Hints:
Layout: H1 51-70, E1 83-84, H2 87-99, H3 105-118, H4 135-147, H5 155-166, H6 175-182, H7 215-230, H8 270-286, H9 290-307, H10 318-330, H11 338-348, E2 351-353, E3 358-360, H12 366-380, H13 387-398, H14 407-410, H15 431-442, H16 449-465, H17 502-514, H18 522-534, H19 549-563, H20 570-581, H21 609-621, H22 628-640, E4 654-657, E5 661-665, H23 668-686, H24 690-701, H25 703-710
Antiparallel strand pairs: 1-5, 2-3, 4-5
Helix pairs in contact: 1-22, 1-23, 2-3, 2-4, 4-5, 7-9, 7-10, 10-11, 12-13, 12-15, 12-23, 15-16, 15-17, 17-18, 17-19, 19-21, 21-22, 21-23
Amino acid sequence: METEDHTSLKDVTLEHASKTTVLPRHFSTSPKHSLTTTPLPASSVSSPTNSWALLKTCNKHMEQSIHYLLNQQDPRGFWVAELEADSTLTSEYIMLRRMLHKVDPDKERKKVSYLKAAQCADGGWPIYYGGPSNISASVKAYFALKLAGISPDEPLMLNAREIILKMGGVVKTNVFTKIALALFDQYDWHGIPSIPPEIILLPKQFPGNIHSVSYWSRVVLVPLLIIYASQPVKQIPKENSIDELYVVPRDKVRIRKGPPFETDPRLVSWRNLFLLVDFALHLYSQRPLLPLRGFAIKKATDWMLERMQGNGGLGAIYPAMANSVLALHALGYETDHPLIGKALSEIEELEVESDDMLHLQPCFSPIWDTCLLTNALVESGLSQAHPALLKAGHWMLSKQTKKVGDWKISAPQAQPGGWSFQFENELYPDCDDTAVVLMALAKLNFPNKAEQRQAILRGLHWLLAMQSHDGGWASYDKDNNATMFNEHPFADHKSLIDHSTADIAGRVLELLGVLGFDQTFPPAQEAIAYLKNAQETNGSWYGRWGVNYIYGTWSVLAGLRSIGEDLSQPYICKAIHWLKETQHDDGGWGESCQSYTDPSLAGVGESTASQTAWALIGLLCAGEVKSDNVTRGIESLIRSQKSDGSWEESFHTGTGFPRVFYLRYHWYGQYFPLWALSMYQSLKTNTRLRADDIAKRNKAQKWYVQHFNKT
């Protein structure tokens, strides 16, 4: 699969692996950003007046970026940067350690420093950089600080209390916050939606069984079933309580009349039906059938313990890992039991510690960082057999899953072959990572072609088997689209399920094009139909896993170009127009997380390096390389690059759960700008992308196409 290197960067060979990459837990960061180098002033960057001068400048800045990124590679082959969330994880971590009587005073002091630094000017805590105070994040932070011994009379606590009460107090927090408070008797278990462990006994064919919800809900929920059954309470001193955060006295609160138990004004609705079911389950839980309850707890425990084997923790995400510890504790395991010790050690790996502060990241993102960066570096002109790329490729090959996971329930015909997001999450590969890894592998020139092709085939078979009946792809399961479950009072975060998304469908189309398929391939036809139906009226596409409409629109346009769609079609032109209309005066693009709650803010927000790069990639894929919008966007990226070859980016541009949980990938602002600059350079120099050459070769060889024609 070797193609000719056609840029001036083809001979870049840097000593990139000589220094050991420091893993995320040891990064020295502030809660908001880790890069402190001052950006180059606009006057110090050339402002070319013609395209060839711009191309020359672009090439220089690409070289700086490549040098910077190659020097970040771990000697084992992967790249990984910090994945930052918000203060809630650190608040919960303080609570967890207090619950278990496992407090490290020095680390707790650093967590307190982090929470203090993360506080907004109005006294609350946000869930994304630059965002407004959030009631749930603020209550968690306030309670965590009190548990850690911070006086409620300190100015930061007085300010926090004032804004929390203005936002409605404890009663207005989300379900997960209320569960965390109930563990310390700061909220009544009576006010938690009913989640009895008997839920796990529902057969797979029955609506509401644990496989009706997403992977992330499942691994969080099953330990909660165990916790809910015993409803443990840790008594704390009165001075640590948060009664002052109730707008009305706590004993006067009508606990099952407020959130999340509000009724739908329509008499007949899923919401009201689930409220009736919740009421019935609540009555049952007061006097459960003891033999059935015991059997359910055992089954939930077995399910959880099976998935805690190996490394990385339950589901390889912090909320599930923490719940697994609490569930074991509720079952009577001592805090020094090896299972609890192992789980806590896995959580400790998520710590990001500096001299003064400590916060927690939700998980690691090495496969995602590595596959995206590999694609960007290939497009930049590095040899497809460059040592850094082959080392990354072999590392990715070693991470292909070989075990059957929960996905087998929704796709029984599928066989293992996908990739997960984290270092270790064997049972939960996802379609997004799998598509981008396969793209990266297909672009490399491995010495062992047979191994390369077999890995790609296994991955592609798994990925195509995961296509949902609506033509799209979800992340972890097939046809996990029963949206009515988001009306359950437990699901106030509205992210209980894992439905098809436009961004992943675009990614799979991009992969299929790279492998030599075109729009006549039946799965591609179904995906294109899905995307046409999913397009917003303004021409954009919703971004489920990145913020937001810029992310979705880039992903789709890249896929449509790769698979061979006619770019002059009206629906594509509409998307191009939307991207052009949302460009900022500084030449960049930006969009706030607020667009998830208010779609009228689509494409509105301060310019960021990653979102500028996404918009540019979308326009370049749509044939707009000669447009003034692209020129201004490229100039914007060049102006904002720092002297070390990196870009500054403080904003959260990744999405965990819309409206609830956002992510700041510390290298989104690094490899996406390189990718955009590289695409511009390729198209201006050769009128085609490096990826186009690889796709052309694969299409001529017909190796993958003929394989699927036979099967």
